[in-house]
Write a structure and sequence with these properties.
- There is one protein chain.
- By secondary structure, the protein is α/β, with parallel strands linked by helices.
- The chain has helices at residues 14-19, 22-30, 36-43, 47-50, 60-73, 85-100, 121-129, 145-153, 196-209, 213-221, 232-238, 240-249, 256-270, 275-286, 293-310, 314-321, 325-359, 377-391, 417-423, 448-462, 486-493, and strands spanning 3-6, 76-81, 104-109, 132-138, 157-161, 178-180, 368-373, 395-401, 404-410, 428-433, 437-442, 471-474, 477-479, 507-520, 526-533, 536-542, 557-569, 572-584.
- The protein contains 21 helices and 18 strands.
- The strands form four sheets. Strands 13, 14, 15, 16, 17 and 18 form a six-stranded mixed sheet that branches.
- The longest helix is centred in the middle third of the chain and has 35 residues, at 325-359.
- The radius of gyration is 25 Å and the shape is globular.
Length: 591
C-alpha cells in the first residue's frame, strides 16, 4: 500500500511571503492562514489572549449557581465520568476543583465492558441511594435524555459537560439543569471543537472566576495542602496538564483555544505536581522519550486508557487524583502491566478480525462490519481504528456475549459515523460518538445482520466513487536543500504542538541526486542517503524503507517527502531529514 502525493494547493499571500521564508509561508497557507496577524496568533499562542470567557456558554451561570447552592447546603455531588482518557481527565479536574472549594464530591465511572458508554439508570439509582442530589457529567450525557429524566424523577439535578454529537431532534435533548456543550443550540462560545476536558475546564474556570457570593466565600476559605491560601489564578493554570491529556487523547483539532491548551498544557505537564502523572512521566523518560504531543498520544494516554480496557477506569482516576507518591507508584506499575496485556490482546484480535473481513470480501465494500462472540469490548475500538487505517475504510465491529451485543467504530475523513448511527438508531438501546468514532449497544441480539446490511447500505450511498487504498500524503511546501537550515528548523518548531488538523509539516525536495545509499540498523531495514542539489550535500534517513526504495540507487534523481527534526547524538546536534516517501523525479541536474 503506497502513498498518493498531494502537493500544496493553497497559495500563500504576498503578506506572508514578505514576512516569512517562502517554505514557512506555504505551510501557513495550507493551514488556512493568510495574514501576518493570524500567523503570529497561530505561531505564538497566548493563554490570556486565546482563552475564551467561560461565561460565553449560555448555561454557565446556571451551572455555577447550582454548584454554589450545593456547596452552601453540603449536598452530595457526583462527577459521572466517561471511562477514557478524555472523560477521566475532565472528571479529575472537576472533582479536584470542587473538592478544593470544600465540596462534598465523589466520582463514578461505568465499567467499559459491562455497562458501556453513557449514563446508566442503575448507576444513577445507586448514587442517589447513597445521597447524591447533583450529578455533573464529563465527556458524556448529551445523548442520555431518558437517564437524565430518570435522575430528575428521583429528585436529582444533572449538569452536562460534553462535546459529543448533539441529538438531531430537540425532542431528544436531555432536560438537564444546565448543558455546557459548544454545539448545543446557537452557542456564542467561539471554540466549537473542544474536547470533553476543554469543556469541563471551562466549568472549572467559571467556578474559579465566578462572582457568586457563595463561591467567593468558598474560594476565600480554601487552603492548600500546606495550609496556605490557594492562589486561584495559579490553580487554574495547574489544571492544564489534565486539559492537555484530554485534548490530545481525544484527537480534537489542535486549532485556536485547543492549540493553546496543549501548548501551555505540555509546559504544565512537564512540571506537574500530580504524583500519578509524575510516576508515568518517569517511566516515559526512562525510555529516553521527550514530552511532546506525540508522547502524550502514544505513551501516556494508552496507559490511562488501559485501566478501563483491561479492568476498571477507577484505577486511572485514582492515579490522576491521588496525593500519595507511594500509591501513585503502585497504580502506575499496575497500568504499565495492563497496557502490555492490552497490546498483546489487540495484536491477536486485529489478526483474527482481518481474517474475517477478508473472507467477506473487504476490498469490495465501502464500509466494513465485523462481529464475533466475546471479542473484548475494551479493545474493540482500538482494533477498529487499526483496521480503519489498514483498509482506509470505516470499520464497525460488534461483539456478542451474555445475550447482548455492543459495538465500536472508527471512520475515515468525510464519513460521519455518529450520523450514520443516528439513521438506524431504532436498532440501538444506546449509542453515541462523533465524526471519527462511536459506540453502541443493540436492543436485540438478533439485529446484528440487519445492522450490518443497513450500515453497508449507508456506506454505499454516502461514500462515492471507487475506493483508493493508498494513503494520502499531504505535502505542505516545496523546498531546496539550500533552504534547510537551523533558522528554518527554529521557525518550524513554532508549529508545535502537532495533532489533529495541525500535522507535522511535510516538505518535498524535488530533483535531488542520490550520491550514496547505505542500509543501516541491525536488520538493514533503514536506509541512509547522501543527497546533492545545487552543490549542497546533506544526509537523510528513511526508517523501515529499505524495501520501498530498493529500486532507487546512486545516480538517480528523486523527489523526497520529508520531515525535519533536531537530532542529538553524543552531545552533537544536527538537522535530521527524515524520509516519509521517495520516488523517481522527472527533474534532472538541469533544474
Amino acid at each position: 500500500m503506497g502513498y498518493t502525493w498531494i502537493f500544496p494547493s493553497a497559495i500563500p499571500s504576498t503578506e506572508l511571503i514578505e514576512a516569512y521564508h517562502p517554505t514557512i509561508a506555504s505551510i501557513l497557507a495550507q493551514r488556512g492562514i493568510h495574514t501576518k496577524e493570524d500567523a503570529e496568533i497561530f505561531l505564538n499562542p497566548d493563554y490570556y489572549r486565546d482563552c475564551n470567557d467561560p461565561f460565553l456558554f449560555e448555561d454557565m451561570t446556571i451551572a455555577v449557581d447550582r454548584i454554589a447552592s450545593a456547596l452552601a447546603r453540603g449536598e452530595q455531588m457526583t462527577i459521572y465520568c466517561d471511562y477514557d482518557v478524555d472523560g477521566l481527565s475532565s472528571g479529575a479536574l472537576l472533582y479536584l476543583t470542587i473538592r478544593q472549594l470544600g465540596g462534598n464530591v465523589g466520582a463514578y465511572m461505568n465499567h467499559r465492558e459491562h455497562d458501556g458508554y453513557g449514563l446508566q439508570k442503575s448507576a444513577i439509582q445507586k448514587c442517589i441511594n447513597d445521597g447524591t442530589t447533583l450529578f455533573i457529567t464529563t465527556d458524556c450525557g448529551i445523548s442520555n435524555a431518558a437517564e437524565i429524566a430518570f435522575a430528575k424523577q428521583y429528585g436529582a439535578d444533572v449538569i452536562i459537560t460534553d462535546h459529543h454529537t448533539v441529538p438531531s431532534s430537540t425532542d431528544d435533548m436531555p432536560a438537564a439543569c444546565a448543558i455546557i456543550h459548544p454545539l448545543v443550540r446557537a452557542q456564542a462560545y467561539p471554540c466549537k471543537n473542544l474536547a470533553g476536558g476543554g469543556t469541563a475546564y471551562k466549568l472549572a474556570q467559571a467556578l474559579i472566576r465566578s462572582s457568586n457570593s457563595d463561591i467567593e466565600l468558598r474560594r476565600s476559605m480554601a487552603k492548600s495542602e500546606k495550609g496556605t491560601s490557594v492562589d486561584w489564578s495559579a490553580y487554574e493554570k495547574w489544571l492544564l496538564d489534565l486539559v492537555c491529556l484530554s485534548t490530545i487523547g481525544d484527537c480534537v483539532p489542535l486549532q485556536g483555544e485547543n492549540r493553546m491548551f496543549v501548548r501551555y498544557g505540555l509546559r504544565v505537564l512537564h512540571k506537574t505536581q500530580r504524583p500519578g502523572l509524575q510516576a508515568l512521566l518517569k517511566r516515559m523518560r526512562d525510555r529516553n522519550m521527550k514530552l511532546t504531543s506525540r508522547a502524550v498520544s502514544f505513551f501516556l494516554a494508552p496507559r490511562i486508557n488501559a485501566a478501563s480496557r483491561m479492568e476498571h477506569a477507577q484505577l486511572a482516576f485514582d492515579l490522576l487524583t491521588t496525593s500519595s507518591v507511594e500509591r501513585a507508584e503502585q497504580l502506575a506499575e499496575i497500568l504499565e502491566k495492563k497496557n502490555t496485556e492490552r497490546q498483546k490482546k489487540t495484536e491477536q484480535l486485529v489478526s483474527d478480525v482481518r481474517e474475517q473481513l477478508d473472507i467477506y470480501h473487504a476490498e469490495e465494500k465501502k464500509i466494513l462490519v465485523g462481529n464475533g462472540d466475546e471479542w473484548p469490548l475494551g479493545i474493540l475500538g482500538l482494533v477498529a481504528g487499526r483496521l480503519c487505517d489498514y483498509y482506509r475504510k470505516p470499520v464497525v465491529l460488534m461483539t456478542s456475549g451474555n445475550g447482548s451485543v455492543s459495538g465500536a467504530a472508527r471512520s475515515i475523513g468525510g464519513f460521519h459515523i455518529a450520523h450514520a448511527f443516528s439513521e438506524i438508531s431504532h436498532y440501538f438501546d444506546r449509542y453515541g460518538g462523533h465524526q471519527a468514532a462511536g459506540g453502541f449497544a443493540l436492543k436485540k441480539e438478533s439485529s446484528v445482520e440487519d445492522v450490518r446490511q443497513s450500515l453497508e447500505s449507508i456506506g454505499n450511498k454516502r461514500i462515492q466513487g471507487e475506493h483508493d487504498s493508498s494513503i494520502p500524503l499531504h505535502l505542505d511546501a516545496e523546498a531546496r536543500l539550500s533552504d534547510i537550515s537551523w533558522d528554518m528548523l527554529s521557525q518550524l518548531k513554532k508549529f508545535e504542538p502537532y495533532g489533529q488538523e495541525n500535522s507535522k509539516p511535510k516538505i518535498v525536495l524535488k530533483g535531488v541526486k542520490i550520491e550514496n545509499k547505505q542500509c543501516v540498523g541491525k536488520t538493514g531495514k533503514h536506509v541512509r542517503f547522501t543527497i546533492q542539489q545545487d552543490s549542497i550535500r546533506k544526509q537523510c534517513i528513511g526508517f523501515s524503507l529499505s524495501d520501498t526504495v530498493k529500486d532507487l540507487d546512486v545516480g538517480d534523481y528523486v523527489d523526497i517527502a520529508c520531515e525535519l527534526d533536531e537530532n542529538e547524538w553524543n552531545g552533537s546536534k544536527s538537522i535530521q531529514i527524515s524520509i516519509i516517501g521517495m520516488r523517481r523525479s522527472v527533474l534532472t541536474a538541469s533544474v
